[in-house]
Amino acid sequence: MVASNEQLPPKTCTIEELVTIEEDVAKVIKGKKTATRRNGVYAHPGEIMTLEGHEFIIKRLYHQELGEITDDEARQEGYENVQAYKQAILGLHPNMPWLPKMKVWVHEFSRKD
Fold it and tell me: Cα–Cα distance between 33 and 31 in angstroms, integer?
């Protein structure tokens, strides 16, 4: 986990690009998706993501290898298990291999109170 703002890597994209797929937006709004893995940093902890008028706060940002993802973490992504998550990702990126050592940035978020 990234502990303080001084240790945060620079953003490679904007928070508006963090969750864009219509199905994923619906999962976030329903509370069925509370994390997104990306190959870059789209948001830092404390930033607010707005989806269809609903606000969500970024809680954590950390690096993780694809091979480390657990079924519980796949459920945070809105999928039943790692295999379902893997198939969804490969469906979005058909030419991308699933490399267990590939590192991604995990953005965890929750509805803003």
Answer: 6
Sign of CA dihedral 89, 93, 98, 102: negative
Residue located via tokens 């502990």: 3
Nearest to 2 by CA among 56, 64, 71: 64
The DSSP H or E segment spanning 24 is: helix 22-29
Per the CB < 8 A criterion, the answer to whether 86 and 98 are in contact is yes
The pTM assigned to this predicted structure is 0.91
| Side chain identity at residue 62, one-letter code | Y
pLDDT in tens, 20-44: 999 999 999 999 999 999 999 999 9
Q: Among 70, 63, 77, which residue's Cα sits nearest to residue 3? A: 63
